[in-house]
Amino acid sequence: MSDNSRRDFLFKGLLASASLVGCAEKKNPFDSEENFQLTGEKVKLLSVTGEVIEIDKAYLKPVPDMPPISNEEERRGIPGKKFVMVIDLARCKNLKKCQSACNHMHQLHPGQSWIKVLSMEDSDHTAPYWQPTTCMHCDEPPCVKVCPVDATFKRQDGIVLIDSDRCIGCRFCMAACPYSTRVFNWEEPILTEEVAQKHYSCESSMPQKKGTVGKCDFCPDMTRRGELPHCVSSCPNGVFLFGDMNEDSVTNGAETFRFSELIKDKAGYRLMEDLGTKPSVYYLPPVNRNFPFEEGLENAKPETTE
Amino acid sequence: MENSNELSDSIITQNLLPKKFGKRGMLWTSILVAICILGMYAYYRQLRYGLVVTNMRDYVSWGIYISNFVFFVAISLVGSLITAIFRLINVEWSTPLTRIAEIIAVSAITFASIIIVVDMGRPERFMNLFLHGRIQSPIMWDVIVIGTYFFISLLLLYIPLLPDLKILLQQKDKNPNWLNKLYSFLGSFWIGSRLQIALSNRAIQILCILIIPVAFCIHTVTSWLFATTYRPGWDSTNFGAYFISGAFLVGSGGVVVAMYIFRRYYQLEKYITEQHFEKMGKIVVLLCLIYLYFNVNEYLVPAFKMKKAEEKHLNELFTGDFSTMFWFAVIIGMIIPIITLIFKKGRKPFPMFIIGSMIVVGAWFKRYLIVTPTLLNPFLPMQDIPESYKHYFPSWEEWAIAMGSLAGVLLFITFFARIFPIIPIQETITEENAKHK
Questions:
Q1: Neighboring chain A residues of B62 at a CB cutoff of 8 Å
Q2: How many domains, in total, are found in chain B?
Q3: pTM of the full structure
Q4: pLDDT surpasses 60 at A10
Q5: Which of A148, A171, A210 sits opposite B61 (nearest CB)?
Q6: Is residue A53 over pLDDT 90?
Q7: Chain A touched by B381 (CB under 8 Å)
Q8: Listed residue (A180, A149, A142) closest to A164, CA to CA
């Protein structure tokens, strides 16, 4: 632990105890028993030494909301990982479950979304297809290059994140991103009370903050817990495959593939390769499709099917 | 001989001293103040509710604030042209125009910085630029060069002002008390000794050389805010030169307009002569032709190839939604000025004033056309978004703030001309005397 982060830790601990003293005049469990109202209701707990103990319910207090990991750690990323996503266009029928799950879990502003399912047709006589589009988490991210304050950054595990506590809202990254993946909190975000009171974390990207940029974050808060991003787990057709390039495996929860073989067999490609942005999202071409393109039209708003 | 010179000295001084606002001056100033206040109210609303009060959305994430910023940076370049470049190449007739050019430069660059803060989603985090600044971002380059340019321009405005402050302080009885206080705060140390004059000449010489590369930097870097991205319409190696040529043009147009207004309002016909308009006219037509040349490069070359990404953008400019504005900007900003100014009659003061205004207005729309249409033509289709995200027309708050900043620049210049002589008195006297000898 560097000197700096230790100081940071001590400072935060100090702050936490200060807030405890500050906010709980009557309910403070560390107060002497005279001014403490016992409820008489007992709760069984396991002590650190392994004994079952019983205490009054009044002594229970919620764990103060502390960030699970420091901002520096969030900026560094998960060691030894290189996250990658594969999107199988042959399986997509524009259900938009990915989008609604993502919007719901991140409490995005109505109308805005981090995932868009685009109706693509490369030219007049080529086949139309549905293309879910997330942040590409480029290895040469144009957004990171232009950010003047290091508010958007590339981590060692390949994820490009935004620190909404630092973002100044200049929107240069939005202009720089060729995939138009970034959205802006034009007004105070509409959040549930629970989320609004949470400590901000770059990994969960929550709570969103007014006047700052947001985008798909590959859900590092989920991956840290060993779970899949919301879009991956919510897709009933298994369109999204997520994994670690170092382990050479990707999964949609039900099936697991060797990443290199999957890309080789199905001729995977990345978007706008010619720009040199080196995305971490690979697409499998829409061949031998599970659904005809037209099936997705039901779910498309009239103006989105041009 | 001595006598006649002394007489003309005092006449020059009398003619050029700053004058109180007349009725028209008061009306002009109050209109500008009113626009500024409206702009401030709009900004208060923006601070309170967020950038949602603008009509910018996720696709058009930069709107008229940014085009206004580019416009201000552009017009401020004229300070370096008229003060520095003309001085270094010994253009003597430019003396009465230097201060006009320099005050336009200082006030425009000031409001460029203000409008860029207005565009920020979190202006209260401005200090992050210094706490967490990263030198690889073109925004940081802009912060550095604009800061430098501001200070050099301010010095180039201030140092030549010192001898005039001495003249102003000699007429203490004519000035209100607060002005005398201001004058002596700014220039009471100036006695006009030979050493001071030598020092100030040396300083001006150094600043004139310094400001030219800095001026080129500010507008090149500003063009790179766009050119360092991949977007059709911005992804161009032509951008730096294209922006700088346009900047010199709009700045000169602005100076011509200011020349005409000050000349009329302060009866400066003896100092800003028809000769000045004639010569500025020739310079403006040259700058117009250069700008036209870069425009041809900017649009014809991609239009010849019509790459897929460029195609939609160019079609929108040439024949689509933005075509009226595009051709309007080209015709009134370049074509008509070129045709008018190649004729001697076109370089008379009044036609020059009209042409200058057309250039400035055309240039403002040109900046709008550089920013907005590109953002409406992203690589991936605009789908899955609310209908309002697919168009852009500024909200009243944006107009109020943009117009408020323009009014602010004019107000700055107006107050400056009220407080200080807009034509350098001492330099004019020195030049007159040199002529008589």
A1: 171, 175
A2: 1
A3: 0.89
A4: no
A5: A171
A6: no
A7: yes
A8: A149
